[in-house]
Structures are given as structure tokens and as C-alpha cells.
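Study this fold:
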Amino acid sequence: MTIILGIDPGSRLTGYGVIRHTGRKLEYLGSGCIKTAVDDLPTRLKRIYAGVTEIILQFQPDEFAIEQVFMARNADSALKLGQARGAAIVAAVNQDLPIFEYAARQVKQSVVGTGAADKSQVQHMVKTLLKLPASPQADAADALAIAITHTHMSQNLVKMSENRLALARKRIIDESQYSKK
């Protein structure tokens, strides 16, 4: 059983989503948005840090997944987004959580099946996958999608490791049989 906190960073609105992953089962634990509602960036970053810290203390996640920065058309917006990500990451690192990062296209591909999915498609699939009664708010749905993507990627890594281990064992057995001849 693993509890994953997903974060969709934003300087004005940071989405969060918490799920529990047990075997093949995903369970919704909570989601929402950290609203900064102030004009100066330093105060917004402080609120993001405090909000993520509070969520971590409330849900006690085992792992932290966050969306990577993409290069926006507006460099100023990309810098602010990067700073919001940094505030969230520092909150997680201060609680000794391992950090995992995923590109937006990778998240959409993992959850919807296409990297070009729009927000409504992500919301619908998150609602379906987590068996929610209604679609979560867009930023919260994106954060839940990031957490879901992390479970998919983790499962793939485990399968790859198991395959590599099986191949290594086979190679050792083959080599030992060859050396006996």
C-alpha cells in the first residue's frame, strides 16, 4: 500500500490530489486547490509551501509526484510556475518524501491515452478511474492524474526490474550449465 500526493503547480492555484495505491486498486483519499489570493509572489510561494506542508501532515503520503515545468510562450509565467513548483518540492523534501516528476503530455497519455487530451478529458478519466461521483475541479483533477500516472510508472518499473532479474537469473543458470560442459 502506497499513498501518493500529486501536485499540479501554479502560482495562483495549486492543485493537489491524494490517492492510495494497493496492488491494482486505486482509492481516492482527497483533493482540492491551494489558493494564494494575493498579488506579491513571495507571499504566494509562502502559501504554497505552507499548504503543501499541511496536506503532507494530514495525509502522510509515502511519495510525492509533481508536474514538470513546460516552456510556456511567456517566460515570466514559466519562471513563476517554476518557483511555485520549487515551493511545493521544498515542502515535500522537508518531510523526507521521494520526489517524482512527470511531463504534462506523459500524464495525459497515461490517464487518457493521448498526450493531446484536454482538461475535460482528464477530469472525466480521473472521475472514472477513481470511481468518483462527480468530476473534480480541473486543477485537482490534474493533480490526481499526476498521482495516477505515478502509480502506472511505478508498476512499469517493477515489471521491468522483475524482467531484468529473471533474465539475469537465466543468464547465470545458462552460464553455470555451460561451464559444467
